[in-house]
């Protein structure tokens, strides 16, 4: 099954797994060596990805409606399931053995067993749910409901709905910051909503670049990929004010931070590259070529921030 393998085995805490939609491949990148160490075929136009703390990862291929559990070491499929609907986003709750997948067409989240990928239940959301996130403390689960201009927040343990919070126009990507606040990228209104997951109230709305998509956190800042601007917006977590802009590749999408917050990794869809950014110096350290159409929609770093 291995399409390309380079010498050595990556340190799992410093490994990126990049889903490439156009090329229908999965690229594994060793961040310590700044080198691609494997590239595997992954049919069905993969986009969504969720990486666990062990040697497993999960991907979503929207065209084939396939969710896969793969070995991070060999790329082999351990389990798979076809979900009738529009699977797109994915998040892993490793402690509870659950995987959540959003259904773009049917306003719901599937709840899957993380070992077998059998459907356990479904959760109702607003129209066209895309990104999914789980808070660091494991208390909250949230979805970005794009066509409803809202986020749905659930109790991650009981799976009971808590809030449906209006945000900006067409929210797509979202993530909880280290303090438990929910940051939501609104691709239609070019801003980020900051939501109190406990109350459901919007704490702030921060203007960013054109078509904000993915969000990650490092060193007291939020970093937001702006698809149409080819940039990252930098937001202070203390003041919730826009601080800086970093130029990256063309049409940046997925973004994640390493466990030590020393690197940010950004997938640039249109120029088939990955940008490696220093979140303290606010500069690009490296630009690496990868497979065709990198999306990396989700948590794609082994050992990345919870």
Low-confidence runs (pLDDT<50, min 5 residues)?
1-12
Helix content: under 10%
CATH-defined architecture: 7 Propeller
CATH class: Mainly Beta
Q: Beta-strand level of the residues, as a percent range?
A: over 45%
CATH homologous superfamily identity? YVTN repeat-like/Quinoprotein amine dehydrogenase
| Tally of individual domains | 1
Query: Major beta sheet, specifics?
Result: 5 strands, antiparallel
**CATH fold node name:** Methylamine Dehydrogenase, Chain H
Structural summary, described in words:
The chain is mainly β and 306 residues long. It has one domain: YVTN repeat-like/Quinoprotein amine dehydrogenase (Methylamine Dehydrogenase, Chain H, 7 Propeller). Helices cover 0% and strands 56% of the residues. The protein contains no helices and 30 strands. It has strands at residues 4-5, 15-20, 25-30, 35-41, 48-51, 56-61, 66-71, 77-82, 87-93, 98-103, 108-113, 119-124, 129-134, 140-145, 150-155, 161-166, 171-176, 181-186, 191-196, 202-207, 212-218, 221-226, 231-236, 242-247, 252-257, 264-268, 273-278, 283-289, 297-299, 301-302. The strands form seven sheets. It has a five-stranded antiparallel sheet with strand order 1-4-3-2-30, with no helix packed on it. Strands 8-7-6-5-29 form a five-stranded mixed sheet, with no helix packed on it. The protein is globular and about 45 Å long.
